[in-house]
Design a protein that fits this description.
Length: 165
């Protein structure tokens, strides 16, 4: 009888611990996903910070080595060298004479994370510091990937956007 009681208690403990383990596993997965979404959101914040401060090194730290950046039909930069050249030679936001603040309204940012892949979509509202007017509104659809533990842009397609919510 004592062996039966001990065996039953042991079986109940195993069932209880097994249940805790799966709960813990799903909790860990949720924490990892939240951390990934936070890191992807940081890509968006640093993207806009780099343009506001004309910080090309910060901008380039966001891109994967073989990333692509499409700014219009037939206008795709491939790899960090071409992407850097685009920002420095063709982007009004990086011109030394441009004094814009680049921001995104929080409600216009969307991010997803699924394992080591994700997406990021946002609008860029460029505000001229001197006139305090919105001068340009653009949008971006971005694919990101976790590479060597860091979320990086692998593909970005830029486009126009409206000020609608």
């Amino acid at each position: 009888m004592r062996a039966l009681l001990t065996g039953g208690a042991l079986a109940a403990l195993v069932v209880l611990l097994t249940g805790c383990g799966s709960n813990e596993s799903s909790t860990n997965a949720a924490v990892i996903r939240d951390a990934d979404l936070y890191a992807i959101d940081k890509v968006e914040k640093n993207f806009h910070k780099s343009m506001s401060k004309h910080d090309i090194e910060l901008m380039m730290s966001l891109w994967a080595p073989n990333a692509t950046f499409t700014v219009g039909p037939g206008q795709t930069a491939t790899g960090k060298k071409q992407i850097r050249a685009y920002w420095l030679k063709k982007s009004k936001a990086f011109l030394p004479t441009t004094h814009w603040v680049s921001e995104t309204p929080a409600y216009k940012v969307r991010a997803t994370a699924n394992g080591d892949r994700g997406t990021l979509t946002f609008e860029c509202h460029f505000i001229d510091v001197n006139s305090e007017n919105v001068v340009v509104v653009t949008a971006a659809d971005i694919e990101v990937a976790k590479i060597a533990g860091k979320w990086l842009i692998t593909n970005m397609v830029g486009g126009s956007a409206s000020l609608k919510s």
